[in-house]
Write a structure and sequence with these properties.
The strands form two sheets. An eight-stranded mixed β-sheet has the order 3-2-1-4-5-6-7-8, with helices on both faces. Strands 10-9-11-12-13 form a five-stranded parallel β-sheet, covered by helices on one side. Helix 6 links the parallel strand 5 and strand 6. The chain starts with a helix and ends with a strand. The chain is elongated and about 75 Å long. The chain is built from 14 helices and 13 strands. The chain is α/β, with parallel strands linked by helices. 39% of the residues lie in helices and 12% in strands. The structure holds nicotinamide-adenine-dinucleotide. Nicotinamide-adenine-dinucleotide binds next to helix 5. Nicotinamide-adenine-dinucleotide (NAD) binds next to helix 5.
């Protein structure tokens, strides 16, 4: 059975099931479709399933025509029926891993999907977790649930972990060109998982699922800590009248030993602000504090407050008060040129501004309307950028440096522009404030 499975994978005779068709799952489905595998997409969100079944896409960076082509030729099917997971030979789990109310890992999506798979598990199936999580999740949490089906891992079915490295909006890399770390519970599991991903991407095998889980946490913690460092230096140098952006530009010319990270309005996205705290939680089990992670979290969480303080001072210097000021937030996505606003610092900034009595609107070319998030419930729609509309605005805050915002128009019309992304670095004009 083992040799036959490997051969079927190489000959693309297996169906790949993807559980969770979001920012990670959908691009992954596209890679397996491109490589010639039939793909069965499973999501609990019926609206997404229907939209895809009509041959459409809801992600800016996944082409609707591509989806349409593979739906028409029957290679891409989508469903909300967990029973159908039985049809898939390989099942890749890409469901959310958020934090709970007390910043503890919320594994309910991962464990919920694992239970659904366990209900239909059959001999010869390969299960891989892609969601970011703490070391121990695959072996300690998922494996016992799957073995309830009465099958043996490494013999009857195969289990592994392969962290996603998706970077939406990155023009240089996409799912198919980013090497992928692969691992398995047993040696045979690793061989199957590696063979599967070898069909679509360059793989990097590691010795255990715990190493693979920890690799992803290291990658994200590395970013969180380095972003916190430049955010802290931004505040320190700013007080001294030194421009952090120019400092980084100069430091970057060192050909070794320095990698540039950039400050901003605070951390955002589904990964960097969240994932390191999965490790913090797990480390407590071993009586260890993750001090770097906590410190980085503290600094990065403070940055939206710093941006609002700088805005208040800038208004004050022009004889304006925050109370009653009309403020336009430019960009609410967590990074440029994408339509994802999960955990975006824009929300904290808007909340703080409103608490201080400002009238807050936003403009984001990719996000026409704000939906409720875990923490905030803003009922706002993107305000079009027009000379008339901008005339009422006392201050604009650039939170996201989308390339297609008409910054010249903003500068011509708005007296105070707070720039958290250094987009206006080449312009010297009264009223521009870096924050
Ligand atoms: N977005 C990124 O850039 C990125 C990058 C690397 C890693 N990750 C990690 O990948 C995982 C998924 O993130 P995402 O951004 O794709 O999330 P997402 O919210 O975009 O997508 C998750 C999907 O899973 C579905 N879902 C939830 N519970 C389900 C269940 N029980 N069965 C089937 N479907 C279910 C949701 O409806 C949603 O469509 C997370 O662990 C995240 O940390 C994300």
């Amino acid at each position: 059975m083992f040799a036959e499975l490997l051969q079927n994978i190489r000959e693309k005779k297996i169906t790949v099931g993807i559980v969770g068709l979001g920012y990670v799952g959908l691009p992954l489905a596209r890679e397996f479709l491109k490589a010639g595998f039939p793909v069965l997409g499973f999501d609990v969100d019926g609206a997404k399933v229907e939209l895809l079944a009509r041959g459409d896409s809801y992600l800016k960076h996944v082409d609707g025509d591509f989806i349409g082509r593979y739906v028409s030729n029957g290679k891409f099917q989508t469903t909300s029926d967990p029973e159908r997971l039985r049809e898939a030979d390989a099942i890749l789990i890409c469901v959310p891993t958020p934090l709970g109310k007390h910043r503890e890992p919320d594994l309910s999506y991962v464990l919920g999907s694992t239970r659904e798979i366990s209900n239909v598990l059959r001999k010869g199936q390969v299960i891989v977790l892609e969601s970011t999580t703490y070391p121990g999740t695959t072996g300690e949490e998922m494996l016992p649930i799957l073995e309830e089906a009465g099958l043996k891992v490494g013999e009857d079915f195969f289990l592994g972990y392969s962290p996603e490295r998706e970077d939406p909006g990155n023009k240089n890399f996409s799912t198919g060109t980013i090497p992928k770390v692969v691992s398995g519970i047993t040696e045979k599991c690793l061989e199957v998982v590696k063979t599967l991903y070898d069909q679509v991407v360059e793989t990097v095998p590691v010795s255990s699922v715990e190493v693979a889980e920890s690799t992803k946490i290291l990658e994200n913690t590395y970013r969180a800590v380095n972003i916190a460092l430049v955010n802290e230096l931004k505040v320190v140098f700013g007080r001294m009248g030194i421009d952090i952006w120019e400092v980084i530009q100069a430091a970057k010319t060192k050909p070794f030993g320095f990698q540039a990270f950039y400050p901003g309005p605070g951390l955002g996205g589904h990964c960097i602000p969240i994932d390191p705290f999965y490790l913090t939680w797990k480390a407590r089990e071993y009586g260890i504090h993750t001090r770097f992670i906590e410190l980085a979290g503290e600094i990065n969480t403070h940055i939206p407050y710093y941006v609002v303080e700088k805005t208040t001072t800038a208004l004050n210097e022009r004889g304006l008060s925050m109370k009653g000021a009309h403020i336009l937030v430019l960009g609410v996505a967590y990074k440029p040129d994408i339509d994802d606003y999960r955990e975006s610092p824009a929300f904290t900034i808007m909340d703080l501004l409103e608490q201080a009595g400002a009238v807050v609107e936003y403009h984001d070319p990719y996000i026409p309307k704000l939906r409720k998030t875990r923490k905030y419930a803003f009922r706002k729609a993107s305000k079009p950028l027009t000379p008339e509309g901008l005339r009422q605005v006392h201050c604009a805050i650039i939170v996201t440096d989308h390339a297609n915002i008409d910054y010249d128009l903003v500068l011509r019309s708005v007296p105070v522009v707070v720039d958290t992304r250094n987009v206006l670095s080449d312009i010297t004009q009264e009223g521009i404030v870096k924050a």
